[in-house]
Amino acid sequence: MKVEELESIIRDELRRDAANAPAGRQLRTAVLDAVTDLPMAERSVRRWAVPLLVAAAVVALAVAATLLPRAFGKHSQPAHPKPTPSPSLPAAPTSVDLRCANGQQQVTGASTRYSNSAGDFRYVYEYYCAGADGSRTGSFVNAYRMVGGRLVFDQALLLGGPQQYVMSMTGLADALRIRVYDAAIPVTISGPVGEVQDLAFDVDGDSGSGVTPVAQPCLATDLTVRTPQASEPTPHFVLQLTNHGGKACAVWGNPRYRQVGGTTPVKFSSVLRGPAGGLAGEPSAAPLLLQPGQSAYSAIGYDPSAPGGCAVEDTAAALANGVQLGNVHYVACSVVSYPLVSAENGSETRP
Amino acid sequence: MKVVVAADAHFVEFMEQHTDSLLTTAYLLTRDRTAAEELLQDALVALYPQWQKVLTADSGVAYVRRSLVNRFLNQRRRSGTELPLAELPETGSRPDFTVGVADREQVRQALAGLPDRQRAAVVLRYYYDYPDQQIADALGCRIGTARSLISRALAGLRAGATTDTPSGTGGTLR
């Protein structure tokens, strides 16, 4: 669909929506009634008091929430691993306008800095919400400037697109590049999604902003699939995907398995974070850009609660974005899928 | 005292002339008739004590509309309804759309699901034909961010329809 067609549909739909808007006659009466007894000069004074009181209460609660856990020697919530910021960067501001859903908490991700043509530095931090189960939101990225030794919010650069995840951020003189994995793009009629893009930000507002697709999602024809065994931390199988194509491609998430043979039902499940014990509480694994010859690995675990005495006959494997990898073979009574990572044993922290 | 009287009279006149139009704005933002009425009523009541600002603005309607958009976004932010949550893609391939047949319905559904700031930007751009700077003013952000919002919205809406063109955006920094 061309942009003009899309814009035309948007205009039509908004006009259609607008036709359903309520009439304002009753509202006029209600508003005039509401303001009748409230002189203009006085109301503005009274209305100042409420936000001030609310702000004071919020500050008091924030201070209490910070100090009380320290006083009792423990944190009120399990802590996510915090990336170590570059030595040249100040600590990321934690007071961010980001509301996390129940079960998720704010995580600080990548960081960098850039400078504009005047030589002024801007400090850039990624935030998102992540749950203990590995679920996460898209990335929010804010830029800050240093004022009097403190970071002051300057502007929002990414607004948490639901499936847009920062892979890296590179700040230079007069340039900022944010590499993202967008799990909703490219949009094609039947192809898989998951594009790696470089977002270029025009530091001085003259030229250069835009999007450069870096890599498309890996297709089955790009990948060689193997299932080697690993011995650490415990013996397990690994799904190894090697890009044998001539250009880089992207993979992300948990492979999916489906039983295609045998009579004994096999239990399938996924662990969104890494193998238990190694990555407890850590957000989901980052998307991977596979250069030609590079591999991604996903541990194939087993569920100890599943009944024994069975064997997986044939299992069809697919990537999270639906790319069918064909049948893979390994012996197990249950299958637990772990995220694709770059470590050879399919685990990010336990070699 | 004279200013207050003048402002009071202007408020009443303004209400007569622009309530329907502003209610349309509120409805396009909230997509709910009751919520739209509450949003506009709250905005007008809150603006009433400072009506001189509306009186002296270049465009009183634009000033109130901007206030309306800000109030809408702040309400949603406070209530935490704006946060888009990530999910692992449940299906690998995109739906097998027939080009052009289901597009309108898909766009309609995608429009309803836009994040609040993107929806506000889309309403201002495509219903009111606001230029980028005016959208940025209304949303309280920089022009690059406004462009980014619209671009992201279009990408999301495309995702609800069909296209062969990948999209996304960078932006402009200071």
Could you give a short description of this structure?
The complex is a heterodimer of chains A (351) and B (174). Chain A is α+β, with helices and mostly antiparallel strands and 351 residues long.
Largest sheet of chain B: none
Distance between the termini of chain B: 44 Å
Oligomer: heterodimer
Number of DSSP-assigned strands of chain B: 1
User: What is the β-strand count of chain A?
Assistant: 19
**Number of helical regions of chain A:** 3
Percent range of helical residues of chain B: 55-70%
Main sheet record of chain A: 6 strands, mixed
Q: What form of chain B results from the Cα inertia axes?
A: globular
Q: How large is the radius of gyration of chain B?
A: 19 Å
Give the overall average pLDDT of chain A.
74
**What's the helix-strand series of chain B?**
HHHHHHHHE
Please describe the structure with a list of short key phrases separated by commas or semicolons.
heterodimer; A: 351 residues; alpha+beta; six-stranded mixed beta sheet; 19 strands; 17% helix; B: globular; disordered C terminus
Protein architecture, described:
The complex is a heterodimer of chains A (about 350) and B (about 170). By secondary structure, chain A is of the alpha+beta class. Helices cover about 15% and strands about 35% of the residues of chain A. In chain A, strand 17 and strand 18 form a beta hairpin. The longest helix of chain A has about 30 residues. The N terminus and C terminus of chain B are likely disordered. Classes of the chains: A alpha+beta (about 350), B mainly alpha (about 170). Strand 7 of chain A pairs parallel with strand 1 of chain B.
